[in-house]
Amino acid sequence: MSDPVDPSASAPATGHEQKRPLRILIGADTFAPDVNGAARFAERLAAGMVARGHEVHIVAPAASRRHGTWTERHEGELMTAHRLRSWRWYPHDWLRFALPWDIKRHSARILDEVKPDVVHSQSHLVTGFGLSYEAEKRGIRIVATNHLMPENMLEFTLIPKRLQNRLISWAWKTAKKTLSRAEAVTTPTQKAADFLEKYTGLTGVRAISCGIDAHMYTPDFTPRTANRIVFVGRVTGEKQIDVLIKAVSKLDPALDATLEIVGGGDQRKNLENLVQQLGLGDRVTFTGYVDDHELRAAYTRSTVLAMPSIAELQSIVTMEAMASGLPVVAANAMALPHLVHDGENGYLFEPGDADELAARLTDIFTMPEEQLVAMKRESLRLIEAHDIQRTLSTFESLYRGEAVTTTYAADDSDEPEVAASAPSER
Fold first, then answer.
1. Is CATH 3.40.50.2000 the right assignment for the domain spanning 214-385?
2. Per-domain boundaries in the chain
3. Cα 253 to Cα 231, 250, 358, 423, distances in angstroms
């Protein structure tokens, strides 16, 4: 780990010198080295803001028993991390959390030391709850982004099924209480924004893409020599990877299709058993977690991304695959239809339907090469709307209190049109 430095010493990026650099505090319940969409977004957001000349502080649970304040490097950029004492949640394969009753005390101390211009909460649960409560008391601007559906948390609890509906209702009420403290509430897609408004009663939730740096990914337009399916993500129940494995078992053996599952999670052993039961041991590979270089290589060598998940608020993985020039076969659920335009850059299938998923994969593997190339190019065209720099500019305006209007094109391409006006009053 690097010696402590002053993150504010970074030079501002070109085009941002005219405004005073901000001191930004990002609070998250999951952050690197955690591997999930929310953690990756928070990491990229933090690094992007440092690259623009802002001073960034991270408040998140410690990744081990070691806790305290130090400098960390993420995405090549230095930032100050305030790592809270954390505890392992054993129903989950890696999750660590800070104790709720400690959060207000730690939040008060950190906010008084850092004196940020803005607090950006990435979770309405533990860390975000404490930071938002204390920031409101101090008159600090609050921006909140929601990445979580309470229903998905229940998979990692030991709570009986009969009590889960009550817990979900309580969780949404808690979300409303915390998110109501924010001047701006965001979520990655319009679908997710509508969902959040429906279950919390909030209004004016903004849809802002998580964004990716598409230039980091490498499309391959050479004629395919194999039929390779890739899945990337947490190996957990809501991802419905079992549906994908069953679909692979239904493919014509003459296609000689293989499946690479990139990621780790609590369902890996169960899925490995399913693979053996279906006689797919020579066609399905579990790689576990990989580094960024290996991940990008996995996309490039694949023919298609399969995303059977029913719980994607945006799906950074799908965006990364599109930036790699892959067609995508995805469940017609949550935010995936915003990214996958049926028949254009891939296909949608009825969630949970292994037969339809197999049929759509077969369509990809048997289509003429020129049609496959057209789908690959359409993925690249659609992903242009999710440029990380556009996302950073939007959040930068929100941090400054500037009014930001984000709308979506009528074809659901998720291309935001952003207009900033004079600073609004808190």
1. yes
2. 7-211+387-423, 214-385
3. 20, 8, 12, 61
